[in-house]
Each structure stands twice: as structure tokens, then as C-alpha cells.
Amino acid sequence: MEATLPIIRELTTVGESLMWIVGPGNMVSENTSRGIEEPDVSGGMITVRADNWHFHIDASEVGGIQFVETYGDLASCYVRFSDWQGETLLRAYLPKPGGATADNPRFYEMQARYAGIDGVELVRREVLAPSRNANRTHGN
Question: What whole-number distance in Å separates Cα of residue 133 and Cα of residue 24?
């Protein structure tokens, strides 16, 4: 997707409060943006580096980009990059001003510029906190 590099490049300018989640499934790496640099590009590979971590992503493997806004008990806003089968490759969580809501002007500015281009879409999801009772064990 041609929007991959411009979006990643812009995300590296958001600031140190952006959180990068690299990897699909149950094994992921969570990384702050402290010391983040502008991405390097070589032969379709995008490399993003920060103070104590880096990742590589093959732009040709990105089959979907979503600007995701969650609401409910766990409000957040993030950009999700997925492969051609829909498996998550990378997520970039934008900071929540005030910590109480997902409202982030930068998220909405980026979403307005990129949504609809090259298949980039906006997704809204309700996320509810797990029940406290679900975490209790019986007999202890």
C-alpha cells in the first residue's frame, strides 16, 4: 500500500508519547517513541529506530491500514497495519490528551487526510473492560 510509508513517517513525528506495538497475536513488543528517528527505506523495507529498539516492515506485505477509534470502557485511538490476510503487523497508539478519552486532534487530522486513499479506512470499535468476577478463582 502506497500510504504505508507516508503514514509511518508522520507517526514518527507525533512525539515521545506514541506507543508502537510490533507483532501479531499473543507475542508482541511494546515500545515507546523516545528517541525515534525518521524511517529509513531500502528496497521496500522500512526501518524505524528509537533509543533502545527498532523494527523492519516490508511495505509490500502491508495489505490494510486502519485508523481505529475504540470507545466504551477502554477508549483509545491507534493506526493498525495488517498483512494481506488481515493479521496485525504493527499498531501505533496515539496519546490520549487528559487520559480520559480517545480524542486526539492529530489522529483525526491524519485520518481525514488518509481515509479512503489506497484502501485506508476508519474503524470504530466498542471495548469493554473484563468483568472483575471473571478474574476471581473459587475456593481461595
Answer: 28
Q: How many CB atoms lie within 10 A of CB 124?
A: 10
Q: Which domain holds residue 64?
A: 4-129
pLDDT surpassing 90 at residue 59: yes
In a domain, 140, yes or no: no
| C-alpha dist (Å) from residue 22 to 4, 33, 92, 115, 130 | 15, 13, 9, 22, 24
Domain at 114, CATH number: 3.40.1570.20
Instruction: Read off the DSSP letter of residue 79.
Output: E
| Beta-strand pair 88-93/19-22 | antiparallel
- Kindly provide the b/e burial profile for residues 59-96, where b requires at least 16 CB atoms within 10 angstroms of the residue's own CB: bebbbbbbbbbbeeeebbbbbbbbeeeeebbbbbbbbb
Question: 21-41 pLDDT, tens per residue?
Answer: 988 777 788 888 889 999 999
How many Å apart are CA 20 and CA 30, to the nearest integer? Answer: 6
Number of domains in the chain: 1
